[in-house]
Design goal:
By secondary structure, this protein is α/β, with parallel strands linked by helices. The strands form 3 sheets. An 8-stranded mixed sheet has the order 13-14-11-10-1-12-15-16. A hairpin with a 2-residue loop joins β3 and β4. α1 runs parallel beside α4, α5 packs antiparallel against α8 and α6 packs across α8. It is globular, with a radius of gyration of 21 Å. The protein starts with 11 loop residues before the first helix and ends in a 5-residue tail after the last strand.
């Protein structure tokens, strides 16, 4: 809690409704697509993982779309053509960025590139036909039919993620019913594979943060504003929802300060919050920031954009999230940095103690593991 007291519970479903009473919850409703393909290479299957679907329209034709991907080979060149392993089409490399590095628990590095699929189908339909559920690489197994449901939240709606916002996996229909739909809001941040990229630099500020696309219905943001004005605490489910809300806050500050370059499409760079946080930006409330974004918009409109916001200690201060529901993360991940910043834990001592005690109590870690709920330190 906000006073650093820790309580352990045996069952999320039994405990959460009571813990969240009187609060307003925010969820990420992005739906995971079958974003892992396999290529036939010299009689073997080679993985092709789509890294980001949020920056494209998955309803567009494959032939007209360049997909940001990783091919798990030591070398790939522009012009290389591969066959999908089950004969569903040819895949051509149209651009190469360089080495894609993953941690030692995955299946090794690959080449980050752009590919085009020779198919008249839409991207979404092609992946539904030929793709596999992109379960985390550290599971070291192929996907199973049950993963299509197990690796998506019950409320998942808007297609565009290549990795699940897994904090939401703990919320069954029964738990959501107990919370009440009037106490819930939904936004979409389409999770990219950059969420699996480890921080491999000594200073986290030197890590190139991946960009992700978000979309927030005006009606949902208005509901959040109403809850904030009613002084309801905001429980945000997942690091992705948190990143979206914090990004919206800074985009609102930009709007208030007249610094928007493109009003129709919001954007936020990795450290853009730093200059925005000084001067006039220091005193902007979360309500004022959100109201600036919805001014003049109808309930049926959607606010969209792309964020590269990096949230890490010791400098980042949260402006929107009161309580954070999240899984237990890998120690070298940007997700762990976000949680550490939320807990104001620059040294890592607090999070290390929490994780060690959770492990001693039999809690499971990572995507299909258990959950925790943190309260912002000093919150009244």
């Amino acid at each position: 809690d906000s006073s650093s007291n820790v309580t352990y519970y045996d069952n999320f479903s039994d405990a959460f409704a009571k813990l969240s009473k009187g609060a307003h919850l925010v969820f990420n409703d992005s739906r995971v697509l079958d974003a892992r393909l396999f290529l036939a290479v010299n009689g073997a299957e080679v993985e092709l993982m789509i890294l980001d679907l949020g920056s494209i329209d998955v309803g567009d034709s494959c032939k007209s779309t360049h997909l940001h991907a990783m091919i798990r080979l030591p070398d790939v060149n522009v012009g290389d053509i591969f066959e999908e392993s089950n004969g569903h089409g040819r895949i051509e490399v149209v651009g190469v960025k360089g080495i894609w590095e993953e941690d030692e628990k995955s299946d090794g590095n690959g080449i980050e590139c752009f590919v085009k699929i020779a198919s008249d189908k839409s991207v979404e339909n092609f992946l539904e036909m030929a793709g596999s559920v992109p379960i985390p690489p550290y599971l070291h197994r192929k996907d199973e039919e049950k993963d299509k449901e197990a690796y998506n939240n019950t409320y998942a709606a808007n297609a565009g993620s290549v990795a699940a916002p897994t904090a939401g996996l703990h919320f069954t229909e029964e738990v959501l019913d107990e919370i009440g739909s009037e106490n819930c809001s939904y936004l979409s941040l389409h999770v990219g594979a950059g969420t699996f990229k480890p921080v491999m630099v000594k200073d986290a500020r030197d890590h190139a943060m991946h960009a992700e696309t978000f979309a927030v219905p005006v009606k949902e943001l208005k509901n959040i504003i109403v809850a904030l004005k009613a002084q309801k605490p905001l429980i945000v489910v997942g690091t992705t929802s948190s990143r979206t809300l914090e990004s919206l806050f800074w985009c609102g500050v930009k709007r208030i300060r007249g610094l928007d370059k493109n009003i129709d499409e919001l954007s936020l760079d990795q450290f853009e919050w730093v200059p925005l946080s000084v001067g006039e930006g220091r005193n902007v409330s979360r309500i004022a920031a959100f109201e600036a974004l919805i001014k003049g918009l109808g309930d049926d409109e959607v606010i969209s954009g792309r964020t590269s916001l990096m949230i890490a200690p010791p400098y980042y201060e949260f402006h929107v999230v009161d309580h954070l529901v999240t899984n237990f993360h890998a120690p070298d991940s940007t997700l762990m940095l976000l949680v550490s910043a939320f807990l104001k834990d620059s040294s890592g001592a607090k999070i290390s103690s929490i994780y060690e005690n959770a492990q001693d109590n039999g809690y499971r870690f990572l995507s299909f593991g258990d959950a925790c709920m943190f309260s912002r330190p000093g919150l009244n």
